[in-house]
Amino acid sequence: VRRDARFAPMDRASITDFEHDTISHIIYIATNGNGLFAYDYDTNELSRPGPDSYGINWIMNLYICQHRLLWISRADHVSYMNLTDGTISAPHQPSSRVVINGFAETSDGELWMASTQGLLRYDHRLDSLMQIGDGTDPSGLRSYSALMNSEDGRLWLASAGCITMYDNRQNRFVDYIDPVIAEVGTINYHSSK
């Protein structure tokens, strides 16, 4: 355990994301080649958050949900670390190679994910990622690069040339295609919640 705030052990690795656990006063640090780190700003210590964290590499983004799970999106799948006991698990996923590009949690406690395979919702009871849409609406299966939720419970998703709104109450996607957005291409958004 390093006792200073310098990130010296992360040489030759890029930091890809941070996530702040306000309950335990820890900042989780994702890298694309050197695993997962935890910085405790009360004790000024940088460490690995658990024995399994050494094997977590190529992390794209992190997200802490209200169930005290640290979601870890990697280049080929998603997993989560239980912040209470440090165990790492992977939910059942719709395919073996799902890439999560964004997370959002709605006021009703539902966790949503923008992925390369469409919009996904995490089902806590089944420990499974559920595909949203029945396959008849191409908006449900589009590759999304970003996700955010609005105060009214709707989700906003970004993809190449399009912004899509998903209304969970009506199970309906609405595309907003703008010539400027279409010209710019993919939109990247990261929310600090």
Describe this structure as you would to a colleague.
It contains one helix and 16 strands. The chain has 193 residues and is mainly beta. The longest helix is centred in the C-terminal third of the chain and has 6 residues, at 179-184. The protein starts with 14 loop residues before the first strand and ends in a 9-residue tail after the last helix. The model is unreliable at 1-8 and 189-193 (pLDDT under 50).
The total count of helices amounts to 1
Structural class: mainly beta
Largest sheet, strands/sense/barrel: 4 strands, antiparallel
**Helix fraction bin:** under 10%
Low-confidence runs of at least 5 consecutive residues: 1-8, 189-193
Number of strands: 16
Based on CA inertia axes, which overall geometry fits? Answer: globular
Q: What percentage of amino acids are in beta strands? A: 35-45%
End-to-end separation in angstroms reads: 30 Å
Strand order of the largest sheet: 1-2-3-4
What is the C-alpha radius of gyration, as a whole number of Å? 17 Å
Following the backbone from N to C, one meets helices and strands in this order, namely: EEEEEEEEEEEEEEEEH
Rounded mean pLDDT is 82
Outline:
Helix content is 3%, strand content 42%. With 193 residues, the protein is mainly beta. It has a 4-stranded antiparallel β-sheet with strand order 1-2-3-4, with no helix packed on it. It has a 4-stranded antiparallel β-sheet with strand order 5-6-7-8, with no helix packed on it.
How would you summarize the topology of this molecule?
Elements: E1 15-21, E2 26-31, E3 36-40, E4 45-47, E5 59-64, E6 69-74, E7 78-82, E8 88-89, E9 100-105, E10 111-115, E11 118-123, E12 128-131, E13 146-149, E14 155-159, E15 162-167, E16 172-176, H1 179-184
Antiparallel strand pairs: 1-2, 2-3, 3-4, 5-6, 6-7, 7-8, 9-10, 10-11, 11-12, 13-14, 14-15, 15-16
